[in-house]
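Weekly modeling sync, notes
Attendees: AB, CL, MP (scribe)

Item 1: holo prediction request
CL wants a bound-state model with alpha-D-glucopyranuronic acid before deciding which constructs to order. AB pointed out that an apo prediction alone won't tell us much about the pocket. Agreed to run with the ligand included and paste results into these notes for async review.

Input as submitted:
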Amino acid sequence: MRTVTRCFSFGLSFSLFLLITPMLSAQQDEVIYDEAKIPKFTLPDPLTGPDGAKIETAADWEQKQRPWLLEKFETQVYGKAPPAPEKISYKVTESSDEVMGGKARRRQVAIQLTDDPEGPVLNLLLYLPKSKEPVATFFALNFYGNASIGSDPAVPLPTSWLRNNREKGVEDHKASEKIRGTSSSRWPIEMILDRGYGLATAYYGDIDPDFDDGFQDGIHPYFYEKGQTTPNPDQWGSIAAWAWGMSRGLDYLQRNPEVDGEKVIVMGHSRLGKTALWAGASDPRFAAVISNDSGCGGAALSRRRFGESVKRINTSFPHWFCDNFVQYNNNEDACPVDQHELIALIAPRPCLVCSAEDDRWADPHGEFLSAHYASPVYKLLGVGGLATDTWPKPNEPVLSRLGYQIRPGKHDVMKSDWENDLDFADRHVTGKAK
Ligand code: GCU
């Protein structure tokens, strides 16, 4: 069996961990919040090929193992996405060089997601610091529309389907003026610009509304074969669609000369953290990847079943992953891959995994272990792995090229998260810091 031939020979800490963890019934549905209750498991080794042979060179990784792993994530976890549309078409809908008291620029761009001019549009909002040179830029999707990220009155309300939310003034799935700035604590725009970076964002529901409607709305129907009404079991769910949409955003960013298209950092929180990891893994044009509290189906190891499990996520959010992923409900060990290999797919590019101490649903320790077990791939590729073998304490970020940080507090994006993200980008993307 692949999981046997590809298993890691772990160091002491992992072997001990295996020995002391009692076996739980694979059928149990209790949410595990206790390390001692994690069932015994063996992780697949990213550096063992499907035939059991060790991957010992960067060339073997790039030519054999990486494509094999990528294909497994595509067909078993997120689902295969279609190729990019033939034409890249976009329209600048608004532009200003006098933003934030004149220190920044704003661009708003409607990006056509398909070759059909009537098809879905990704409305991208881009803030740029005034700079003579193209700037490195963070690209992160948002949950409630571009107008929710700040108080800027020039940003229109989202028109795509939104989840109802009284506090944000969303009724009948439509935004109202009340939404403006309601997510601003997660978006320290001025701080990002003051540090010399651009910030691009777009509403994820422009790509695919986040509810289970059998993939009748959003981007999916535009790619059905004749007679097809729903994606095949190995075809894209919503996370893959959001990631694909980010690649379309990147198509545009790489054509805007104000942006350094070789230095676009994909970042995301929670389900959009899962999306950021998959976008970075599946599209090597992203220069670096940052996941925040991404949890199950993101950075957390599925085999740990700690907090949210594969069965829970597939039950609550049946549209997020491809249908093939359902066979791993209560059956994680049968999956040919685990999430450390998702991070390995990003190697040798910089990747920062961020956790929050109280966010146990997302399994912070499992998020750390994923980075830890992806490390051998970074090392093989000659860039050094995660610069610690032990789970760091809160507020002690490890900003190595494969990095990890945990902070106190809940599932959220805080200013301090962005401070670390910016420090990480300074070191590994722009070289502003060592
Ligand atoms: C739920 C879900 C998580 C997800 C989170 C979010 O909590 O179970 O997997 O990360 O929503 O996206 O906010």
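Recorded for review: Residues 9-27 have pLDDT under 50 and may be disordered.
Action items: CL to compare against the apo run; MP to circulate these notes.
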